[in-house]
Amino acid sequence: MRLLSLIPVLLLAMAPMPAAAQSPAQAPQKAEPRRWSEGDDTLRVNIIDLSPRFLDFHAAASAAGVDAERRWTLWQLRYGFAAVPPTPEGQAMARRMLEQAWPRYAGALPLIRRGAKAMRPQPLDTLRAVAAVLEPREPVEVDVVAYVGAFDGNAFSSGQDGRPTVAVPLEMDERQREAILPHEMTHAVHIVTADLSGGWERSIAATLMQEGLATHVAHEVVPDRPLAELIEYTPGWWAEVQPKRRGILQAILPALEAKDGDTVFRFTMGKGPNGFEREAYAAGWWVIEHLRRQGMSLAEIARIPEAEMPAVARRAIEQMLAGSEPGS
Predict the structure, then answer these.
(1) CA separation for the pair 152, 53 (Å, rounded)
(2) In angstroms, what CA-CA distances link 297 with 93, 140, 213, 300, 316?
(3) pLDDT in single tens digits along all 328 residues of the chain
(4) What is the sign of the dihedral through the CA atoms of 186, 192, 194 and 195?
(5) Cα dihedral sign for 230, 234, 236, 237?
(6) Which residue blocks in the chain are alpha helix, DSSP H?
(7) How many Cα atoms are found within 13 Å in the side-chain-facing hemisphere of 242?
């Protein structure tokens, strides 16, 4: 199964800038999401269900005579939510995703109309499972955005002022969501336990520590899934990077403190120094694995401050490289 959700989890998603086709006075108001909260003072999720907003857009865009240009304008005005960077390039990506997904939306409408209440697994249940592993000492409150994506399975998370958000596609296959949601909920809890910035531009060390932790926790929460299913974007990638373990660790070592967007992209979505996408994800799994072998629990790793992550990652990688690591 191709797992698409683990592309940079902090790739933020609000792509809507109203098109100039209508003045503000003429532009329609976006439909209100459904909102409710679940949980208690220790663990709580606030659900923001965007299905009414999407359904309003889809109805308008399905009218006779609406061409692709008008459909894109309506998407921006009435819906405007996509798992893309908040940049002009992200806007272009969102438009391409809309056009590719448009023919499939009609068949997914029954599922979309059921909204977030029908989503499985339920976000609160997953949050509880992740919290049982990470043992947060602080209350954890997560905003969960249930949105309609582009059939790409791209759940993601972000944070602002210590308040984490997890966005989950409604059209995602249930089995895929079972594997993806623990990863994203780990990021949400991690934002709280380590007081993380939650931003897209973060050091490579912070990226690999966060992604490695999320994959390890997901493996604890859904132990029946093969690791490859939890960490891969492209099928076969995990098997291909294994022989290059040493090279990947050596190449990422001098970049640990870099935090510019280009470098983060290179070690996540782009081709890394060894020619693989997601080299930070591979390094992250190995670093967290090394720390666990040294006796640290996942809960302890989740409390490492972001400022200390470069030193922790550097020490772990240097220790691994100094040993008899496999690969070239």
Answers:
(1) 19
(2) 39, 20, 11, 5, 15
(3) 223 333 333 333 433 333 333 444 456 688 999 999 999 999 999 999 999 999 999 999 999 999 999 999 999 999 999 988 777 888 899 999 999 999 999 999 999 999 999 999 999 999 999 999 999 999 999 999 999 999 988 899 888 777 899 999 999 989 999 999 999 999 999 999 998 876 666 899 999 999 999 999 999 999 999 999 999 988 999 999 999 999 999 999 999 999 888 888 899 888 999 999 999 999 999 999 999 999 999 999 999 999 999 999 999 999 999 984 444 4
(4) positive
(5) negative
(6) 51-61, 68-74, 88-114, 123-134, 174-193, 204-221, 227-231, 237-241, 245-252, 261-267, 279-293, 298-301, 309-322
(7) 8
Q: Of 108, 101, 107, whose CA–CA distance to 82 is shortest?
A: 101
Residues 6+ apart with CB under 8 A from 20: none
Site of tokens 């809960």: 299
Q: Is the pTM of this model over 0.85?
A: yes
| Cα gap 21→26, rounded to integer Å | 9
> Which candidate, 292, 199, 224, 138, places its Cα nearest to that of 9?
199
Q: What separation, in Å, do the N-terminal and C-terminal C-alpha atoms of the chain show? A: 28
Question: CA 82 to CA 296: how far, in whole Å?
Answer: 37
Residue 311 CB partners (closer than 8 Å, separation 6+): none
The letter for the amino acid at 40 is D
Please name the residue that has the structure tokens 């949105």. Answer: 147
Q: At 61, which amino acid appears?
A: A
Task: List Cα–Cα distances, 257 to 102, 117, 309, in angstroms.
Answer: 41, 42, 9
